[in-house]
Amino acid sequence: MVVNGFVNVVISTVERRYDMSSTESGIIASSYDIASVLCLIPVSYFGGLGCKPRYLGIGVFIMAIGSFVFSIPKFTAAEYEVVSNGDNLCHSSNNNTMECDNKIDSLSNYKFVFYLGQFLHGAGAAPLYTLGVTYLDENLPLRSSSLYIGIFYAFAIVGPALGYLAGGAFLNLYVDFDSVNSASLSINSLSPRWVGAWWVGFLLSGILALMISIPICGFPTSLPGSSAYKAEKEKEVYDNKKVHTTEIAPGTKGKLFHVWAAVKVLLTNPTFMFLNLAAAAEGNILAGFATFAPKFIEYQFALQSSTAAMYIGYVAVPCGGGGTFLGGYLVKRFNLGIKGIIRLCLGVTLPCFLCVLIFLVNCENVPFAGVNIPYPKALNGSTKREFLGIFKTDSCSDNCHCSMEDFNPVCGDNSVVGCQNLIPDSNPQQYANCSCISTETSGMHAVIGKCGTSCTYLPLFLPIFALVMLLTFVASMPALTATLRCVPQKERSFALGIQWIIARCLGSIPGPILFGKLIDITCKLWQNSCGEQGSCFIYDNLSMSHNMLAIGLSGKFLSSLFFFLALIFYKTSCDENSNITKMNKPNQNGNKNSGDKRSKHETQKPETPGGKSIETSLNELGNGDVKQNGDGLNQSGSTHQNKNVEDKRSKYETLESSDL
């Protein structure tokens, strides 16, 4: 809930409050995954050898500390100052020029505190999605594990979705509501200058994390019956004849030289590697949209930050949680093997190409004089200016000495103003004698706030965007299940760690930074304080939509390609041994196949999960039965003994799982 909920909801508010660009806020989001990459190798490997619940409990405790650190700027920075509505009126001289001091530098430096808090979030979550998932998989039956892991991931999606909803509600509270009477303010939540209480969710989640960290540490290393479940799952492991896992000898547990043997097993598994690359492509898109989707909707459709967060929450709850649960259910319902699972992932990823085209739909820019539209003809007869990009005033507002530090837009009948008087007791606040409004406009009045938009595309955008999210999350649970099944049992914790590293280094770490950079290049009006660039005031909607479309299409193309390659390269020991087991079975006459056919495959005898050949194991089992029954067996006893051996032979020969 904390990381993917509250952080993503408040990202635009934090930018506005602490003078940051979208690229810098993207680094905040990526700090989570940077910490995960640094911690995953030691946590997943040594945690897989030790007590997994203990690692999980410590991780939750670290996440709690990260939440407290993330909220520190609220309590150490000065209170947020709201400029009075009358302070930005036009003056004959530049008496209201702000003095440059260290305030701006101190605010921008708080980004390092956010980096640290998010870094601790990532470090604490490192064991959660590796050791936690492996702990469930080890202690559940083969055909039920995907369902329960799906439930786990469904809650991992519903949590952030609830974070969007709760965070949006907190943003309706004033940032300093604990020390300032909100009723006395000259602004409300509709104002562009409004900063909501972004910090409340982090305090609450930090307290909750502290409370649950201790009980998690009390779980046992393994639950009753887990040994049988592990043996059942071993037969679906990808067959790599060139590399085999290495047993760790007593007294050398945790030695680092064993790590290389495990890495070699995983890196030479093509299905595992292509699934990792698919996860990276999907992670790039998910991390970017999770971080900036609220901001995209806020600026594209001219909404409040809290309203945009609410809409994303309404999409994320049913689509994220439902999609994750549905993916796990489909694997269980149709009893899918690895090939069937990968086909499912490919089948739900391809339709996303068409759905991503929704980003072609965009709203027109809200008109803003000197930024995306020219000034009208000034009252003194000067010609209008065509200008787009860097804010520039016209002669109608030359005497205003507008500050580039504060953003306090007002809307006139022609969408541009330049006002000299404030009309008292007006609601909403109105201005008079606005020189940039045409003389044909009665009273030359303007109203506080941005001009409205007539865009009606939001009801079209949200359902199709929800479909993209639903299909993306449907594939997430099956892809994880395929990853667990295609690697050796003893390497599964480590395999998830490797996958997280690849998916984050190539996906969710560069994803938010790339999205933030693409959003920054669409900015048309930057905050400027004493020569320092701050946050962005106005974006170009068309460019922002096209950038989102380009990165969405490219990500879905790559993930589809990697799922396809994972399917092509997949094979198991069952594929190699299916013909052999058939040849070893008795024919209709009760005789086995000819000796020359058996000798042809002598070196390819299938193995039991214990590592011995089937024939050797069965001989040992048969001898054990004879020895147990004694030398004085009569004919019926011998027949019974042979039947037991044949039953056990049939049990080991049926190694092939059903792949749809």
UniProtKB/TrEMBL annotation:
Chief site of localization: membrane
Annotated Basic and acidic residues bias: 594-605, 643-654
Biased segments, Polar residues type: 580-593, 631-642
CDD domains named among the record's database cross-references: MFS_SLCO4_OATP4
Record keywords, A-Z: Disulfide bond, Ion transport, Membrane, Transmembrane, Transmembrane helix, Transport
Subcellular location: Cell membrane; Membrane
GO biological process: monoatomic ion transport; sodium-independent organic anion transport
Species assigned in the record: Mytilus coruscus
InterPro entries, sorted: MFS_dom (IPR020846), MFS_trans_sf (IPR036259), OATP (IPR004156)
Residue ranges of the TM segments: 27-48, 55-72, 112-136, 148-175, 195-219, 274-297, 309-329, 341-361, 460-484, 548-570
Membrane topology field: Multi-pass membrane protein
CC per GO annotation: basolateral plasma membrane
Region (Disordered): 580-660
Major facilitator superfamily (MFS) profile domain: residues covered: 1-571
Protein family: Belongs to the organo anion transporter (TC 2.A.60) family.
Name under which the protein is recorded: Solute carrier organic anion transporter family member
GO MF, any single term: sodium-independent organic anion transmembrane transporter activity
